[in-house]
Amino acid sequence: MALKNSATEYGSLAKVLHWLVAIGIFALIWLGLEQSGMERGPDRQAVRDLHGSIALLVLSLMTLRVVWRLLNEVPAHPEKSPGWQRAAATLVHWGLYVAVFVQLVSGSLAVATGGRPLAFFGFFSIPLPVAESDDQHELWEEVHESVWIIIVVLLGVHVLAALYNHFAAKNDVLRRMTVGVSKSGG
Ligand code: HEM
Ligand code: HEM
């Protein structure tokens, strides 16, 4: 399997990055909601620190992913898909990139303006050069508590579209991000 993308399918690096980020995002949504139901204290702080540590991994993977995407060709939309579906796919993909970055930045700024460094699995922590501020802290928390809902809605559309393409339109869209497209055109 080729490392780079081709005109018809994603290469192995794009696939690995897509699926690692996907696992990371699902874990972050779950841990984020889990901690919101917990009482203040060391247990909740531990879940928050784990959430933030996984988020830093996702940030590195997403950065690598965007750089790799800009260096690569992007597989073309399926020949038979109508214009509105092509436009919607492009919009949802870019919407996901932007919303995930806003979520990563707002989470980091919510922690930093709350006067805490960003923890990384207990190995080290990164203090951001941002002043502590109650107003800013509340603002970034509100952004963080809203934008994940946009991510979930976009993801819902994204997953349904992948299933629609596979089972109804019967094209290679799901295969080219997973098992690959067979050379015989199957
Ligand atoms: C079960 C979950 C998921 C499924 C089934 C899925 C499926 C797919 C498929 C089939 C493609 C290829 C689309 C095409 O060739 O036109 C794709 C691309 C993409 N997916 Fe997902 N995905 C999932 C989760 C996620 C998550 C969590 C994100 C969040 C960042 C994401 C972001 C993207 C983006 C941005 C692209 C476009 C890739 C590019 O060209 O840069 N996906 N996904
Ligand atoms: C794509 C990345 C991220 C996703 C999907 C995500 C998701 C979530 C979710 C769903 C919540 C619960 C919100 C609520 O109760 O309404 C949450 C809370 C939280 N997240 Fe994230 N998060 C991400 C990145 C980050 C980062 C980078 C940090 C900091 C290093 C962070 C720190 C926090 C903190 C401190 C909370 C609790 C405070 C609050 O509710 O705003 N998150 N996150």
Would you write up a description of this structure?
The protein has 186 residues and is mainly alpha-helical. It has a single domain (12-177), classed as Transmembrane di-heme cytochromes, Chain C (Fumarate Reductase Cytochrome B subunit). The chain is built from 4 helices and 2 strands; from the N terminus they run αααββα. The protein has helices at residues 12-36, 42-71, 83-113, 134-168; strands spanning 118-120, 124-126. The chain has a two-stranded antiparallel sheet with strand order 1-2. Helix 1 runs antiparallel to helix 2 and helix 3 (83-113) packs antiparallel against helix 4 (134-168). The protein is elongated, with a radius of gyration of 19 Å. It starts with 11 loop residues before the first helix and ends in an 18-residue tail after the last helix. One protoporphyrin IX containing FE binds next to helix 1, helix 2, helix 3 and helix 4. Residues 18, 21-22, 25, 69, 74-75, 89, 93, 96-97, 100, 155, 158-159, 162, 173-174, 176-177 line the site of one protoporphyrin IX containing FE.
